[in-house]
Amino acid sequence: MNESLPQRKHLTRIPVWLPADTAVIYFITACCADRRPVFAQADHVCTAIECLRQTERRLRWRVLNCCFMPDHVHLLLSPVQSRDQPPSKFMQRWKNSVTVRLKPVVGHEVWQREFFDRLLRTDEKLDEKWNYIRENPVRAGLCSKPEDYPFSGTPEEILLRLDL
Fold first, then answer.
1. Rounded to an integer, what distance in angstroms lies between the CA atom of residue 76 and that of residue 126?
2. pLDDT 10s digits, 106-158
3. CA nearest 24: which of 126, 105, 92?
4. pTM to 2 decimal places
5. Disulfide-capable partner of 40 in 68, 70, 74, 104 (CB 3.0 to 4.6 Å)?
């Protein structure tokens, strides 16, 4: 008997139920297609950051910190205009703009279709997540201490460090 699988449905995003004086901050992870090391090269990271800053301005989000691992990216981002802005629109626009610029250069798809997002509940969780993100390159054997990794920090810090 050949039964077809049910269509996968995306979960409906629940409203942000945080106190009004608490910042809305998302922890996002986006992986490269087939876990290819797209962001092992500084010029690819710079291109992605340029697209990130452009998407930030256009959609009114703020990227607090990011870490470009060779085959995935971690972002901490916060909506500026409305607490209820969904991160999906930001990610769709950003990933599309990176794809337009990098796919012809790398010769293959840049991103996996989905991404992981988690709403952080407190400032304490923000520090905890950023420390986890900062340690990723150390755990992966890319550097011996987090401050030595050039593709981690605010977008501005990374661009200054790379000076391309």
1. 8
2. 999 999 999 999 888 777 688 889 999 999 999 999 999 999 999 999 999 99
3. 126
4. 0.86
5. 70
- Say which residues have a Cβ less than 8 Å from residue 159's Cβ, sequence separation at least 6: 46, 49
Amino acid identity, position 144:
S
Q: Tens digit of pLDDT for each residue in 61-120?
A: 999 999 999 999 999 999 998 888 899 999 999 999 999 999 999 999 999 999 999 888
Buried b vs exposed e over 131-142: b needs ≥16 C-beta within 10 Å? eebbebbeeeeb
Q: Spell out the domains of the chain, with CATH numbers in brackets.
A: 25-162 (3.30.70.1290)
